[in-house]
Amino acid sequence: MSKRLPVKLRAHVRQRAGRCCEYCLIHEDDVSLSHQPDHIVARKHRGQSQADNLAWACYVCNQLKGSDLSSIDLETGRIVRLFNFRKDRWSRHFQLDGAKILPLTAVGRATEHLLQLNEPKAVTARQDLIQYGRYPR
Ligand SMILES: [Zn+2]
Q1: Residues near ion ligand 1 (Cβ under 5 Å)
Q2: What's the CA-to-centroid distance between 35 and ligand 1, angstroms?
Q3: Coil, helix or strand for 16?
Q4: Contacts 24+ apart (CB under 8 A), 78-83
Q5: Measured in angstroms, how far is the CA atom of residue 42 from the centroid of ligand 1?
Q6: Predicted TM-score of the model (pTM)
Q7: What is the mean pLDDT of residues 54-69?
Q8: pLDDT above 50 for 63
């Protein structure tokens, strides 16, 4: 994680995401810690620093995801890959229910659990943003 991405690539990933976390959809203007480029497939797993392997992520989502590629689906007990923004459609795996992010698939459940997308503080923060018309953007 120490190597910085080229400025142009970082800006491309940021703009492509509309400056929102591609996991929890929070806009970078609505959090105090900076959003970051996330290697969907981490460098330690031979993921490349190129646009199709990068997502724009809030600090919390990026830290919780780390270099993970999969997690356990609590419903089936199976190992399931995580959501991949470059290959999957968000609305196929998740649905917003007010401030909650409801997983719709095994991939969604594994990702929601690993990233703690419905941790009470995150839901409360999203509820506040919804009141001001700032979530989702
Ligand atoms: Zn996030």
Answers
A1: 21, 23-24, 58, 61
A2: 8
A3: helix
A4: 78/106, 80/106, 80/107, 80/109, 80/110, 81/107, 81/110, 82/107, 82/110, 82/111, 82/114, 83/23, 83/107, 83/108, 83/111
A5: 17
A6: 0.91
A7: 96
A8: yes
